[in-house]
Amino acid sequence: MPTLTEVWDSTRMRLLIELDRASSLSAAAAAMGISQPSASEHLRLLSSAAGEPVAERSGRSLVLTPAGRILARFAAQALASLAAGESTLAARAGLRSGDLAIGASSMPGTYILPAVAASFIARCPAVTLQVSVGSTESVMEWLREGRITLAVACSDSKLRGLRSESIGADEVVGICSPGSIEVSSDGYVSVEQLASRTLLAQERGSSIRAHALRLHSSESKWGAVWEMGSIDAVKRAARQNAGVGFVSKYAVSDERRRGELLCFRISDVDWGCRDIRAVTLGNAIQAPADRYFQALLTEAVASGSGLLCP
């Protein structure tokens, strides 16, 4: 009986990953450019080496068994490490070639990543850059599956096998139409100043929304709570003097610079700061392109640290 070490090659690694994505042997084989009989033989060899089936029928689909999913996870990590090695060799003399796949959660992906990506492309035009934005959970899964090699998120991932590093901090700030609230010279308002005003709340499930709702006691309440579907909706309503909202400081940098919105902190209320983190596979060697992109991200976050300074 062969061992996994003897049959473990990049083709079979990729087959497990593609089958996990497609749940169809024909689709997985087509994605790899091999025939379906060849794919079946690869799965047979892997099952033999594993000592148990790595895939099984589920209705019309062919899905990975628990053993197959374990092997697929390690296959993704191995291929990601190999890709990093190839990029490192290709870039030994500088960032002249290679591929870079970045993933980011919504806040950094929307408000920080675009400018950094543009700067990277201008400085490293020969490196192919791919950017994907999704939920934190999705981004971490992309990283584990080897679809991206660097993730950017505003929370420390609890997934095993990942390594994260803080590249700066985000802060939640209040926003309102200029002149609608008297803000102190150092950028503060009191909780009492917000009583009876309309709260422009983010979607349910948002930690920012929950914190804002708890600002007032039973004697001092929000006048009304408007349910807004997005950060952009909160900003638009605030610009129209409909109420006050709370968002990431990075989400309002442009509006503040143009004088469309006023940002403030609340006296004696600590919203706390959340880290913006760069996350990689724990056992992967980071390629030069990844390291350089992360350096540009760190620089961009640092340059935005004084957004609220008067």
From TrEMBL:
Gene Ontology molecular functions: DNA-binding transcription factor activity; transcription cis-regulatory region binding
Residue ranges of every copy of the HTH lysR-type domain listed in the record: 8-65
Gene3D superfamilies: Periplasmic binding protein-like II, Winged helix-like DNA-binding domain superfamily/Winged helix DNA-binding domain
Database matches in PROSITE patterns: HTH_LYSR
The keyword Cytoplasm is annotated on this UniProt entry: no
InterPro entries for this protein: LysR_HTH_N (IPR000847), LysR_subst-bd (IPR005119), WH-like_DNA-bd_sf (IPR036388), WH_DNA-bd_sf (IPR036390)
Keywords: DNA-binding, Transcription, Transcription regulation
Similarity remark: Belongs to the LysR transcriptional regulatory family.
Protein name: HTH-type transcriptional activator CmpR
Organism, as annotated: Mycolicibacterium vanbaalenii
Name of the gene this protein is made from: cmpR
